[in-house]
Write a structure and sequence with these properties.
It contains 10 helices and no strands. Helix 3 crosses helix 8. The protein has one domain. By secondary structure, the chain is mainly α. The longest helix has 25 residues.
Length: about 240
């Protein structure tokens, strides 16, 4: 299969999930793309689509921009982390990161499934927001998969669906923008990868905008279930990619 067809199919599937939940594009698309163009090239290609699709979600949910009081410090530190992660792209121990992420998300998902519907206190959120943004930015820059980290944290805050989508989209957008800048400075983009990335970005934003018309019709409980499924799938992808 030609690389551009594999990229198009992977992006379409991932963007459809992202349009509803605000996350899911890299976890769905990266494994398919990695088969045909390699893991590192797949992360490079995915960076630009991540920026533009999240920009679309930020614009679509702009009216709730002030409803997450810790979003600004999270975004600031995520930008720092995104640039650092791009530099660390080929130097991180993917297996250790994948195992740690799996343990954290598994514990969180288990608490939700068993009925422990806990949410973090305002004080705890205030103390942890900036460090969480930094770590998520590093993960985004280095692996393209910060969804399990950000998604678990924001979900534990008990945010309404539009606020969750806006928050995670803003974090993805800014950390990915820093990632793209870092990759460009480091010379990671050549004509082929840049062309594939532009193709992927165009297709992804088209699908996300189209699917967003369905999002308001999704009940809260169904939305929560979809988020948990995406979190579990994201961790599974990280484990498979790291140990394969």
């Amino acid at each position: 299969m030609p690389a551009w067809i594999a990229v198009a199919v992977a992006i379409t599937l991932g963007a459809a999930v992202k349009g509803i939940t605000g996350m899911g594009l890299p976890p769905v698309a990266l494994p398919v793309m990695a088969i045909f163009i390699g893991v590192e090239d797949a992360v490079v290609v995915m960076a630009i689509p991540t920026v533009v699709t999240n920009l679309a979600l930020v614009v679509d949910n702009w009216e709730v921009r002030r409803e997450n009081p810790v979003l600004v410090p999270m975004v600031v530190t995520s930008v720092i982390g995104g640039a650092l992660g791009a530099w660390l792209l080929t130097n991180l121990d993917d297996r250790a990161i994948a195992v740690l992420m799996a343990l954290l998300v598994a514990a969180y998902v288990a608490s939700r499934v068993t009925g422990s519907q806990w949410t973090m206190s305002r004080r705890l959120v205030g103390v942890t927001a900036a460090p969480v943004g930094l770590v998520g930015g590093v993960l985004q820059g280095a692996t393209g998969l910060s969804g399990p980290w950000y998604g678990s944290y924001l979900h534990a805050m008990g945010l309404a669906a539009p606020v969750f989508v806006f928050s995670i989209a803003a974090l993805f957008q800014f950390s990915s923008a820093a990632q793209v800048l870092g990759l460009a400075v480091l010379g990671r983009y050549d004509a082929r990868l840049f062309g594939l990335s532009v193709l992927a970005a165009t297709l992804a934003v088209t699908v996300v905008v189209g699917v967003r018309t369905l999002a308001p019709r999704v009940p809260r409980r169904a939305f929560d279930a979809m988020v948990l499924v995406v979190l579990v799938g994201s961790v599974a992808v990280m484990l498979v990619e790291s140990f394969s």
